[in-house]
């Protein structure tokens, strides 16, 4: 799987979350072909595109297959913060090492400064909740709650406790939560991408469905913000509150709808009914 040929003139960048925003495994067609047709049309006009996901690189490679991607996105942001540029002639992904080195340096600092917080959270989760504490290689720590309601309660507790630990950032999506350095999330990775390709914030489109997408739906990150109709309620509220577009469609159809809303309908394809 290779990306389309790099445009002569870059018009802007389109950033999509994957699970829920594009990919709906429970549907007969998990990712609608009209999404790729729309992207191919916009790509001809100079719009680059990126997948910004909480998935790891390996898990996302599986996602590309499951979603039947006919061509690769120009960029992939895995685990909300590892930036990759699209495949070479062999379809290999290349991590942006400069950005990764900054992350590793800042994470080392985070681990030193926040060890006490992490330890306290672990005790709280294990002793006082039905949630599960998880430690994965390359990530400081995470939580899997027994329900979305329990996660909301945990999130409120975390918000209060992290006030005394300046570096603690939280990435949350349905029943999952991870701790990280506060400067690394979907928002800062998308800003870095836009900086690298040299496009202003007004030419950045971002769409998502989960709490961890809110960082990239910030007005300082993207001038065009949207969410699909199957988004978490707090995401819809955020998008509405910031003058963004809440689609009526689910998943990839909702994403196409949002692209049409912001990027006009000059192209014939964009007139096709969804
Ligand atoms: Mg999602």
From TrEMBL:
EC number: 3.1.3.-
InterPro entries xref list: HAD-like_sf, HAD-SF_hydro_IIB, HAD_sf
Pfam families reported for this sequence: Hydrolase_3
Top enzyme category: hydrolase
GO MF term set: hydrolase activity
Keyword annotations from UniProtKB, A to Z: Hydrolase
Name used for this protein in its record: HAD family hydrolase
Lineage, opening ranks: Bacteria, Pseudomonadati, Verrucomicrobiota, Verrucomicrobiia, Verrucomicrobiales
